[in-house]
Design a protein that fits this description.
about 475 residues, alpha+beta, Beta-Lactamase, Helix Hairpins, Heat Shock Protein 90, 3 domains, five-stranded antiparallel β-sheet, five-stranded mixed β-sheet
């Protein structure tokens, strides 16, 4: 049995030592130990103050009693002489249990009292502490006494004292209690510190374990929450929210990467095929020119896609608030409408603008203009000939707004959130030029400027509205 048990006990002992060492090194254990030491010092000081005040009070009461008795006896001696004093002392010595009396002649030979001999090393008029033998039962027990020495006229010596053995026991008991209370507070403090450190260490270990698994690539792991709603629970919830956000961003990044690969593969393949065919055949100058022109058109579309991605990245990365400036929204919208009026006329569309005067917001003027350009470009692209596109801007509830509406096919309600993602194109728009980044850029610009973006039904057509926050002034 011993041979089987000893090899198992060694790892357990080592493990316990390791756990104890880890617990002792934790900040919670050090904090608990500090509080334990502070508690010990506080309790000891309070107990010492109580002990000191109690001892002083009892000693003062004893000395006042002795002073009153010795003053009375001295007065009685002056009035009744030695014989009268002797009678009084004998009477009091027999009736008192704790009071001590001794009257001696000038040579310190006892005359009356309940003490057998005069204590050594006494000086007249001083307070003395001495031990004496007191009969208890059938034997003698040593007790402690506190007394006052007075020299009477004629050279007689009077000693009046009080048995303070009970006070000595009380003081000893209080000192012992102080030691035990300090030791108990230390043990409880250390034990509580170890338990507290073990509890917190187990929760921190669970956080570290989760973080380690996430670092190894398992993004589905989350920090466990105990449900106590304490500091670690709030930290765990914040970490889990951060992990959810990171996971969503990584999923979005993977989706964007897949979409880029999917949407750019076709135009790049067309470019490569066109160039290969042009190089393989013996073409004339005009054929080469047409091939290059088509290549330039395809390249422009690719550049538009990458520029849109860069703008979205710039908007989503956020801007330094100090770099924002006052944007004259009225002038910006008027410029965009003026820019697209010829295109609307060529497409056989009506472009109306109802823009209030004096509109302004704080933001990035280029990004705001690009967002409105994207909205107008989409509206003109998807509105059939004879349709109507309207740009409306004003102030509602002290908030500037921009509204772009059209009479095109619109977007189904179930798809309005999805079309704000990158590279999302509905089935009806696959045949039209575009990359699916227009509304994504608008959403990013709105989020950057803390504005709300709403897509609605124009019956028929689409309404896109941007509500900017209240301007804080120039």
């Amino acid at each position: 049995m011993c041979r089987c048990w000893k090899p198992c006990a060694a790892p357990v002992t080592a493990c316990m030592r390791l756990i104890s060492a880890r617990l002792v090194r934790t900040s919670w254990f050090r904090m608990a130990l500090g509080y334990a030491v502070l508690s010990i010092v506080s309790v000891t000081m309070l107990f010492a103050l109580l002990y000191w005040n109690t001892a002083i009070f009892v000693a003062e009461q004893t000395e006042e009693t002795i002073e009153a008795e010795i003053t009375g006896l001295a007065e009685h001696y002056r009035q009744a002489g030695l014989f009268g004093l002797t009678e009084v002392i004998q009477e009091r010595a027999q009736g008192q249990r704790l009071s001590l009396y001794l009257l001696t002649d000038p040579n310190r030979r006892p005359i009356a009292g309940n003490l057998n001999s005069w204590p050594a090393d006494t000086q007249p008029g001083t307070w003395i502490d001495f031990d004496y033998q007191r009969p208890v039962g059938s034997g003698m027990v040593e007790h402690r006494a506190h007394a006052r020495h007075l020299v009477l006229p004629g050279g007689f010596h009077l000693l009046v004292g009080y048995d303070v053995q009970d006070q000595v026991r009380l003081e000893r008991r209080m000192r012992q209690s102080m030691i035990w209370i300090g030791a108990l507070a230390l043990v409880l403090g250390l034990g509580g510190g170890l338990l507290m450190a073990r509890h917190w260490l187990s929760r921190v270990d669970s956080v570290n374990k989760t973080v380690g698994e996430i670092m190894e690539g398992d993004m589905s792991q989350r920090v466990p929450v105990s449900g106590t709603n304490d500091e670690l629970d709030r930290l765990a919830r914040n970490l889990n929210d951060m992990l959810n956000r990171i996971e969503a961003l990584m999923a979005g990044l993977r989706q964007v990467t897949d979409n880029i690969a999917h949407d750019l593969r076709s135009p790049l393949n067309r470019l490569r095929t066109r160039l290969d065919v042009t190089l393989m055949a013996d073409q004339d100058k005009e054929a080469y020119r047409d091939a290059l022109a088509q290549t330039v058109v395809e390249t422009d579309e690719l550049l538009k896609t990458f520029n849109a991605l860069l703008l979205i990245g710039e908007a989503e990365s956020g801007l330094d608030r100090s770099s924002l400036e006052w944007v004259d929204l009225t002038a910006r919208l008027a410029d965009v409408v003026e820019l697209y009026e010829p295109a609307a006329e060529d497409a056989g569309l009506t472009l109306d603008a109802r823009i209030a005067d004096g509109l302004g917001v704080r933001g990035n003027p280029n990004l705001i203009s690009q967002a409105v350009v994207n909205l107008l470009d989409n509206a003109l692209k998807y509105t059939p000939k004879g349709g109507r596109v309207c740009v409306d801007a004003g102030v509602e509830n002290e908030q500037p707004y921009v509204l772009v509406s059209d009479t095109g096919p619109g977007i189904p309600a179930v798809e309005r959130d999805r079309v704000l993602d990158r590279f999302v194109r509905l089935e009806g728009s696959r045949s039209t030029p575009g990359s699916g980044l227009g509304l994504s850029l608008v959403a990013a610009v709105a989020k950057l400027h803390q504005a709300s973006l709403t897509l609605g039904d124009n019956k028929p057509g689409l309404i896109v509205r941007i509500d900017f926050p209240k301007p804080n002034g120039r």
